[in-house]
UniProtKB/TrEMBL annotation:
Keyword line: ATP-binding, Cytoplasm, Kinase, Nucleotide-binding, Transferase
GO BP, sorted A to Z: nucleobase-containing small molecule interconversion; pyrimidine nucleotide metabolic process
Residues involved in ATP binding: 10-18
Gene source species: Daejeonella rubra
Enzyme Commission designation: 2.7.4.25
Family: Belongs to the cytidylate kinase family. Type 1 subfamily.
GO MF assignments: ATP binding; CMP kinase activity; dCMP kinase activity
Name of this protein: Cytidylate kinase
Cellular compartments annotated: Cytoplasm
CDD domains: CMPK
EC primary class: transferase
Domain Cytidylate kinase, first and last residues per copy: 6-215
Domain of life: Bacteria
Length: 220
């Protein structure tokens, strides 16, 4: 039988990955964080000082990148050529560059190809910006998440602070606003709500309520 795909898209720091993880756990599906893939490519480009105007270098770099997800009891790790980069991809240098890198056509072509391949390995929940529109247009359930930008900045701030990062709330607010702008206005697969997506605004509801909301749309 066909694999079941749940696609979750939406703005930055809307709690997409929190809901995606909870759904995957409840349903015993694989969870794939597509943003972590774009972040890891960005980290590789930064480390190797790839010239973003040089298509040949970009293509070569993409060939040199091998990404893998490793799920343990408590968390999902992403590895870049065997190195666990889960922590480093959340830091500001990557956050500042990721929307620029992910607007590059060749980067998207390669990531979408890998994501579609992962979709053939089993039932999955994948979150990102173009999952319901481009990666899996035939997804069984598409959720489009949104929340008040100030609440989103506050949540991201608390998350990073709790991980011991030194961050400033204004800087986070600016970063979210800038990424949302870049992600919704780019030429290549911009962030847009799929016609058949269910909208979930989670500004004022908790994680358990979001899970209940989503589960209603999943046929047993
Ligand atoms: O989901 P997350 O906020 O970690 O994603 C980081 C960035 O990666 C986004 O701001 C966006 O620029 C890019 N992205 C994308 N397409 C996806 C997932 C993420 O362009 N499917």
């Amino acid at each position: 039988s066909k694999n079941i795909v749940v696609a979750i898209d939406g703005y930055s720091s809307c709690g997409k990955s929190t809901l995606a993880k909870a759904l995957a756990k409840r349903l015993h599906f694989i969870y794939i964080d597509s943003g972590a893939m774009y972040r890891s490519v960005t980290l590789f480009f930064l480390r190797n000082k790839i010239n973003l105007k040089d298509q040949e270098s970009i293509k070569n770099a993409l060939n040199d990148i091998h990404l893998d997800f490793q799920t343990t009891e408590s968390q999902t790790l992403i590895t870049l050529n065997g190195e666990d980069v889960s922590k480093e991809i959340r830091q500001m240098p990557v956050a500042d560059m990721v929307s620029t890198v992910s607007a590059i056509k060749d980067v998207r072509i390669e990531m979408v190809r890998q994501q579609q391949r992962m979709g053939r390995t089993g039932n999955i929940v994948m979150d990102g910006r173009d999952i319901g529109t481009v990666v899996f247009p035939d997804a069984d359930l598409k959720l489009f998440m949104t929340a008040d930008p100030h609440i989103r900045a506050e949540r991201r701030y608390n998350e990073l602070i709790s991980k011991g990062e030194k961050v400033n709330i204004d800087e986070i607010f600016e970063n979210l606003a800038k990424r949302d702008h870049q992600d919704t206005t780019r030429e290549e697969s911009p962030l847009i709500q799929a016609e058949d997506a269910v909208v979930l605004d989670n500004s004022y509801i908790d994680e358990a309520q979001q899970l209940d909301f989503a589960m209603v749309y999943i046929k047993p």
